[in-house]
Design goal:
Layout (H helix, E strand, L loop, with lengths): L2 H31 L9 H14 L2 H12 L17 H26 L5 H4 L5 H39 L2 H15 L1 H5 L13 H25 L3 H12 L2 H8 L2 H8 L3 H24 L9
Helix pairs in contact: 1-3, 1-6, 3-6, 4-9, 4-10, 4-13, 6-7, 6-10, 7-9, 9-10, 9-13
Length: 298
């Protein structure tokens, strides 16, 4: 079997194992609880959904592990090592870029959606209690690192290297992002991120998730390629989930402003987020395609 055919075979096994669980579990849970599980306010359903989210994020890593064992691939290219020499800046960027993105998005949302409120009426003056809460949230990202690792070792640690073996990097980034977005499709149908009450449900939500995943895939792949390690991407994913615009709004916005942001239609409030991520993605793509001056430092 040629190397390309073997790569496609391994990729197919990996994707099959990754996609099947949500396609089965979510419809079963929906049938059992009698409602879209991510829109429920029932404490029992919410507990089950939280457990599903945490455990579900481990599925891609399990698929990576199983595929390597079944196809006897081994772990020589697993991205599980750590080498900080000449790469420290990329490790710092794993948190800094997402924090900067969300800060810019907050200001953009103020300009677009909080008309009539002054800047001072919108944002709390930074003080020790506020910054303390922010740092506590950032520290919480370390806890969420483990489920984030579950996704990243699968998508960036296995899927993306395989895709880049069989197609050019730009095509791999787009294809990988769409695959990642479609993996979320059962969650999106069940109300994750956007709910179920919006025009074009669920296809608009699935499409927006694919766009977001393409954009985020570019930066996460860049981190993984530059550090030759999966951990920066995993921490970036964790920070993105734990210090989203909604979380930052609850920390830095006044009560009135935070309530207005929370009351925005999910699809509408998602658009500024997607626009800023697209800028990061474009820069990431340029850096991914740029040939290194010194191959030894890459």
């Amino acid at each position: 079997m040629s190397n390309k055919k073997l790569t496609i075979k391994r990729l197919g096994i990996f994707l099959g194992i990754s996609f099947v669980p949500f396609c089965i579990i979510i419809p079963v849970m929906w049938a059992c609880f009698g409602e879209p599980i991510y829109t429920s306010t029932d404490p029992g359903v919410m507990t089950a959904v939280y457990a599903l989210g945490v455990s579900g994020m481990m599925i891609p890593s399990a698929a990576n592990l199983i595929t390597r064992l079944v196809t006897k691939e081994g772990f020589g290219n697993s991205y599980l090592g750590v080498n900080l020499k000449g790469r420290t800046g990329w490790w710092i960027a794993s948190a800094a870029v997402k924090l900067a993105e969300n800060a810019i998005i907050m200001v953009l949302m103020w300009a677009l959606f909080l008309g009539g409120m002054s800047f001072s009426d919108t944002f709390v003056s930074p003080g020790m209690p506020v910054w303390g809460l922010f740092l506590l949230q950032l520290a919480g990202s370390l806890i969420l690192f483990f489920p984030a690792f579950g996704e990243e070792w699968g998508w960036r640690g296995y899927m993306m290297p395989k895709l880049m073996e069989i197609m050019p990097k730009p095509a791999a980034i787009i294809t990988g992002g769409i695959i990642w977005g479609l993996w979320h499709a059962p969650l999106t149908v069940a109300g994750h991120n956007f709910g179920t009450d919006y025009p074009g449900y669920p296809f608009v939500g699935i499409g927006l998730m694919c766009l977001m995943c393409v954009a985020m895939n570019a930066f996460l792949t860049l981190l993984t390629e530059k550090t030759k390690s999966i951990y920066p991407a995993a921490f970036c994913h964790s920070v993105n989930n734990n210090l989203s615009t909604g979380v930052l709004a609850s920390i830095f916005c006044t009560e009135t402003a935070a309530a207005k942001i929370a009351g925005l239609p999910p699809v509408t409030s998602f658009l500024p987020y997607l626009a800023i991520m697209a800028v990061t993605a474009a820069v990431s793509m340029i850096l991914l395609l740029k040939k290194p001056k010194n191959a030894e430092t890459e």
